[in-house]
Amino acid sequence: MAEPPADQTLAAKGLCLEVERAVDLLMNKSSSVKCVPGAGRAPRTVSLVLVYRLPWFSKPSSKKGALVASMLATGRVLTANPSVKVEEIIVSDVEQMGNRKAVKFPAAAAIRIQKRVSSDVIDWERGYQELSTVLQDVTIPKP
Known about the structure:
Distance between the termini: 13 Å
Number of helices: 5
Order of helices and strands: HEEHEHEHHE
Strand order of the largest sheet: 1-2-3-4-5
Structural class: alpha+beta
Radius of gyration: 14 Å
Largest sheet: 5 strands, mixed
Number of domains: 1
Helix content: 40-55%
Shape: globular
Strand content: 15-25%
């Protein structure tokens, strides 16, 4: 993976702050998630890594809520910041990250689904169903 240009990395750090605030609002919690930008797989792109501070992924219902919040927050923030080329969103929690486990979804899917949810074309439940079709389990490589 090639490193994205410095301006993309700096912009992605700003996106991460916006995503953290948006997730906190959706989850009704303060400091519920940490977002860190990383290099995307495609040249000149970034990925956003979201790690929840609580073990939301231990129960299917709380995992679903965390994934919906992640998708809605990143979709909104990325729509407002189209100049930053985000390729994918990687999501985990502190417990799963210890096991090097996460899930990922394309940034384009987050944008598309969030727009449909926010314009009431679909509800968040249908948005989650659509997100589920593009979710992939990933193992985080050791540094």
